[in-house]
Amino acid sequence: xxxxxxxxxxxxRSSTQGTLIQSHSLSFLKPIxxxxxxxxxxxxxxxxxxxxxxxxTDESKMNNKVAGAFVVYNNNIEADYNTFRLNDHATxxxxxxxxxxxxxxxxxxxxxxEAHIITDSRSVLQALENINNLDHQP
Length: 138
Hints:
Elements: E1 11-14, E2 19-21, E3 43-44, E4 53-62, E5 65-74, E6 77-86, H1 92-109, E7 116-119, H2 122-129
Parallel strand pairs: 1-7, 4-7
Antiparallel strand pairs: 1-2, 2-3, 4-5, 5-6
């Protein structure tokens, strides 16, 4: 990833799509460069042999209520969890974006060097992969 992007790293996988984001620096944790100058975050197929910190995400919309959660496992032991609720007018895609961003914030605040964020949101993974193709500039 481009220099100037922060020092934390992450890995993300999609359970239904079998994808995994490789470890990369996360520029948006410490905004040294504007978003349009940061590299995309590619993902690859998930492997069942992942070790260390695994953060599983889930999100849903039911009865016009949108919510999400993540659960943190450290070497297969549940270590923590977090739930969040969005405005009733929010979309599931917004919850999926937040479900990726909340674990990133979590492992940054907990000074984790690497974590694997497991998600089933292929659309968010594709957006991260194509971040340079989005029009970020003012």
